[in-house]
Amino acid sequence: AGGVVSPEAEAALTAALQRDPENGTARYYSGLMLAQTGRPDMAFRLWRGLLEGSRPGDPWYEPLQAQIPDLAWRAGEDYQLPAPTVGPSAEDLQAAEGMSDEDRKAMIEGMVTQLNDRLATQGGTAEEWAQLIGAYGVLGQTERATAIFAEAQTRFEGREPDLALIRAAADRAGVAR
To answer: Staple 39 to which of 34, 45, 84, 100, CB 3.0 to 4.6 Å?
Structure first.
């Protein structure tokens, strides 16, 4: 109440996380508590992991999207919100089970094309670029994987952790130089 986290509330959050460390609601409110008690660094780490593992329909998703940029700044972190991910829904996966191999491959290629187009126009995270490189490798489209690898290296130049992720994907796809 009034921006103050009572000892009872803190104990309830701790107990909820001990029962289920993946409890999104408890993780959200624990991060809020940490932010309010002068630990934006710990709150940011907690919220970043929660946001990256969440989907737009989760109840904490929009509050996280709204609050994490300011929290990152307070924590001294250079952070960009992740681009919305595009991937198959549960319904898409269920529909794919009944498809012929040819139809399933066409569906996958369509999703890869969507990801490619979004990254080309809007950019994205290193994880998404790595995913695209890997997808082209799996599809046997090594020329596309090589081109995407080269573009990703340019886009993430100077950001070694991101480049390491991208290089690992290129290595798995067989296109690392």
So the answer is: 34
> Do 98 and 115 contact (CB within 8 A), yes or no?
no
- The number of domains in the chain is 2
CATH number for 53 = 1.25.40
Q: What is the pLDDT of residue 31?
A: 93
Residues 68, 96 within the same domain:
no
Whole-number Å distance between alpha carbons of 151 and 156: 9
**DSSP assignment string, 29-97:** HHHHHHHHTT-HHHHHHHHHHHHHT--TTSTTHHHHHHHHHHHHHHTT----PPPPP----HHHHHHHH
pLDDT tens, 41-98? 999 999 999 988 877 778 888 888 889 999 999 999 988 876 555 556 667 667 777 7
Q: Using alpha carbons, select from 47, 100, 108, 110 the residue that is nearest to residue 77.
A: 47
Q: Is the dihedral of CA 4, 8, 13, 18 positive or negative?
A: positive
Q: Is 1 helix (H, G, I), strand (E, B) or coil?
A: coil
Question: For the whole model, what pTM was predicted?
Answer: 0.50
Separation CA 89–CA 75 (nearest Å): 34
Token couple for 12: 């309830």
Point out the least confidently predicted range of 31-35, 68-72, 100-104.
Answer: 100-104
